[in-house]
Amino acid sequence: METLDFRFDSAPVSRAANPALCGVVGSGNLEILVKAGDEPTACAVRIKTSARGFGETWRAVLGSFAAAHAAGGTAIAINDMGATPAVVTLRLAQALAEYQGGAQ
Question: Which residues form a coiled coil (predicted)?
Answer without folding.
Answer: none
